[in-house]
Amino acid sequence: MSPTTPGLRAYEISIRSDVAELVGQLRELLGAQLVAYLGSVTETRAVRQWAEGVRKPPAEATRRLRLAYQVAGLLAERDQPPVVQAWFQGMNPQLEDSAPARLLREGNPDEVGPRVLAAARAFAAVG
Questions:
Q1: Domain of life, per the record (predicted)?
Q2: How many whole angstroms separate alpha carbon 102 and alpha carbon 16?
Q3: Residue 98 pairs with which residues in a beta bridge?
């Protein structure tokens, strides 16, 4: 992989960032409500606390948030945050008309992760 591989930088950030930094960056890209949804919490206060490092999300939520950042970061290489947010929430024909955010929240990351990433790469390629 070369340094210009689409999504490589987002992947590196998703792996190397501590949880607070990752959540803060994800909140900037997706907004606090969508991050809360992806993290399976009902209040954006939890997202703020995660971003401030006051508390940590559960391990499974952290795994999903890292994956969500990888996808969001890849999309943000070409599009502005409102487009990235819309992509996460919209029905996606490459994902059997499911919203990527819903798949990431409800599905097994090992199963849905590659599908969501492939759909994001396809969207970024035509963007």
A1: Bacteria
A2: 25
A3: 92
